TrEMBL record:
Organism field: Splendidivirga corallicola
Keyword ATP-binding belongs to the record: yes
Domain of life of the native organism: Bacteria
Ranges of residues in domain Phosphofructokinase: 3-278
Pathway membership, UniProt: Carbohydrate degradation; glycolysis; D-glyceraldehyde 3-phosphate and glycerone phosphate from D-glucose: step 3/4
Gene name in the database record: pfkA
EC numbers: 2.7.1.11
Amino acids binding Mg(2+): 103
Binding site for ADP: 21-25, 155, 186-188, 212, 214-216
Protein name per UniProt: ATP-dependent 6-phosphofructokinase
Catalytic activity annotation: beta-D-fructose 6-phosphate + ATP = beta-D-fructose 1,6-bisphosphate + ADP + H(+)
Record lineage: Bacteria, Pseudomonadati, Bacteroidota, Cytophagia, Cytophagales
Subunit structure: Homotetramer.
Length: 323
């Protein structure tokens, strides 16, 4: 394979740039040509495609966001859009693709591979860490650390004013950021979409703490929790407990920005190298990941359909540690 294309799609995630850099330089190292595709599938359809060299990825390893920009494309979900995208790729002589993104990006990549047989390797880039076939996704570690710093800061105020804080972290369908930042930040309770927590349980956890002279409490909630978002949960609790001061803090997109941690830069670099070398070896329709420190390839089908459950030990630990 001589010419490959690379793009980022869906949400951005800290470390995507380190991955782009690694992939571009690995391709050049192996005498391949690399083309950047801007704005994900939208750019593919429009032909927003340009040659990349070693210099074009200078000074980005430490930056979040994505140099190739990202987009959520409606047109790629139509056959006509994908035909147009394939036509554009053939115009540039692109023979293989590296798709950095989450499950939506991989769903699109899989459909595209099945229709046009163009080899594609997915690289897991989402702060949510909800992809099967890798222990961690690019951006997850940075997001957890950002959430943790915010929780530490909020705890100062919670403590001074004897308040209960409901802190909402990202995770549309996944509690990975919540559970890790909650444990690291010493939360009394962590609410995640993977397990059910009732308002009665929230109140009982808070009351237990108060009987042990706890004056402030932190509850971390994943945005996709089945009991509602942080505002809704706080309202329900407030309506039953009048004597306490409650506050809600929604951390939002700060979790998707900021310099990637060392862990994310190294993970992203390893995956970028692995993706290009995988394409060279003839791998296709797979996601590159790292499991137990070993580079692995998992079919795109499995990466999007199989669940990567939260470690039950971590869920149990929250209870033990908040005693
Ligand atoms: N069933 C599908 N068919 C074709 N393309 C899809 C499909 N599902 C998702 N995509 C493409 O992948 C893009 C990224 O998916 P999205 O869910 O937004 O982000 P992520 O990759 O981070 O999960 C979508 O905007 C769309 O263009
Ligand atoms: O930037 P947007 O489109 O508001 O996306 C927010 C979503 O992005 C995420 O951080 C990750 O989403 P992706 O799987 O698309 O990368 C979710 O946790 C969150 O709900």
């Amino acid at each position: 394979m001589k010419r490959i294309g690379i793009f980022t799609s869906g949400g951005d995630a800290p470390g995507m740039n380190a991955c782009i850099r690694a992939a571009v330089r690995t391709a050049i190292y192996h005498d391949m040509e690399v083309f950047g595709i801007k704005y994900g599938y939208d750019g593919m359809i429009k032909g927003d495609i340009f040659p990349m060299d070693s210099h074009s990825v200078s000074n980005i390893v430490q930056k979040s966001g994505t140099k190739l920009k990202s987009a959520r494309s409606k047109d790629f979900q139509t056959k006509k859009g994908r035909e147009r995208a394939y036509y554009q790729l053939t115009r540039f002589g692109i023979e293989g693709l590296i798709a950095i993104g989450g499950d939506g990006t991989f769903t699109g990549a899989k459909v595209f591979f099945e229709e046009f047989n163009l080899p594609v390797i997915g690289v897991p880039g989402t702060i949510d860490n909800d992809l099967f076939g890798t222990d961690n996704t690019i951006g997850f570690d940075t997001a957890v650390n950002t959430a943790l710093q915010a929780i530490d800061k909020i705890r100062d105020t919670a403590d001074s004013h004897d308040r209960v804080f409901f802190i909402e972290v990202m995770g549309r369908d996944s509690g990975y950021i919540a559970i890790q930042s909650g444990i690291g930040g010493g939360a009394e309770l962590v609410m995640v979409p993977e397990t059910e927590t009732t308002i009665t349980e929230v109140i009982s956890t808070l009351k237990k703490g108060w009987t042990r002279q706890k004056t402030s409490s932190i509850i971390v909630i994943a945005e996709g929790d089945e009991a509602g978002n942080a505002v809704e949960i706080a309202e329900k609790v407030k309506s039953q407990i009048k004597e306490k001061d409650f506050r809600v803090s929604i951390l939002g997109h700060i979790q998707r920005g900021g310099a990637p941690t060392a862990h994310d830069r190294i993970l992203a670099s390893r995956l970028g190298v692995g993706a290009v070398e995988g394409l060279r070896e003839g791998k296709k329709n797979v996601m590159v990941g790292i499991i137990n420190n070993q580079l692995t390839f998992t079919s795109l089908e499995e990466s999007i359909t199989k669940q990567k459950p939260l470690n039950p030990d971590l869920i149990r630990m929250v209870d033990i540690l908040s005693i």
